[in-house]
Amino acid sequence: MTSPLLHDPRLIVGLDLPSVEAARDMVDRIDDAVGFYKIGLTLLARPGGVAFAHALRAEGKQVFQDWKLHDIGAQVEGAARAVAEGGCDLLTVHAQPQVMTAAVKGAGGTGTKILAVTVLTSLSDADLKDIGYGAMAAELVARRVGQALACGVDGVVSSPLEAAAARAMADAAGRPDFLIVTPGVRPAGADRGDQQRVATPAEALAAGASHLVAARPVTADPDPRAAAARIAAEMAGIRPGA
User: Fold this and answer.
1) Residues with Cβ < 8 Å from 152, sequence gap 6 or more?
2) How many angstroms separate the CA atoms of 84 and 70, rounded?
3) Number of helices followed by number of strands (H, E) in the chain
4) Do residues 121 and 92 make contact, with C-beta atoms less than 8 angstroms apart?
5) Closest alpha carbon to 226 in 14, 60, 4, 12
6) For a pLDDT cut of 70, what percent of the chain falls above it?
7) Mean pLDDT for the chain?
């Protein structure tokens, strides 16, 4: 067993890898430096993907199943119930009121927390205009955070650039426990990849994020265990809104 490295429970590593076997190998290489993993659609859709998520939880890891559910209410309610009953710490749905309300109902009483995805961090204001939205990212995120709070979800997924506004809205609503999970986190000097709205770990936490998601900055590093520890070191001592 290697010596323990700095670990921060607010760090979620995204296992955005092409196969369950590659994800399993990555978890083994990271070892004790991370205790929380995000599993996205690429792995969840593969044979054994959901079983892998359940195996991680059985090993004592926390698991974020990033399904981004978006369908009619009955389907979302049933899917959220199925995922929650199988064992899941965080589950994502799109921040549409009917979707969020159904997911909260489906997962009720299971311990699974529902996160609403506001605006994907790969989208710029220009992208939103092309899609047909009349609002810029910051405005659209604010609207969806307000709807998420009204629907009773446990938190949102939002870029670091909108985290401060989301935290202020949650505090004003009397929800200091509201989760703000931020992808698009890049250590100082790291490549942006396909993310448009990014920040460093320290910046995201200071803005109000409760959890940070990092994928390639960890999984693409020759030493992912050390990379995770470096991010944890950047996070050390910083509390939301500090």
Assistant:
1) 100, 101, 104
2) 16
3) 11, 8
4) no
5) 4
6) 91
7) 89
SS (H, E, C) 182-214: ECCECCCCCCCCCCCCCECHHHHHHHCCCEEEE
115 and 179 Cβ atoms separated by less than 8 Å: yes
CA distances (Å), 99 to each of 79, 109, 166, 174, in order? 11, 18, 20, 23
**Catalytic (active site) residue 129:** no
Per this entry, what is the length of the chain?
242
Q: Which of 38, 61, 68, 113 is catalytic?
A: 68
Q: Considering the entire predicted model, what is its pTM?
A: 0.89
Quick check: helix, strand or coil at residue 37? strand
Do 44 and 69 meet the contact criterion of CB atoms below 8 Å apart? Answer: no
How far is residue 9's CA from residue 34's CA, in Å, rounded to a whole number?
7
Q: Does the pLDDT value for residue 73 go beyond 80?
A: yes
User: Any idea of the CA torsion for 109, 112, 116, 121, to the nearest 10 degrees?
Assistant: 180
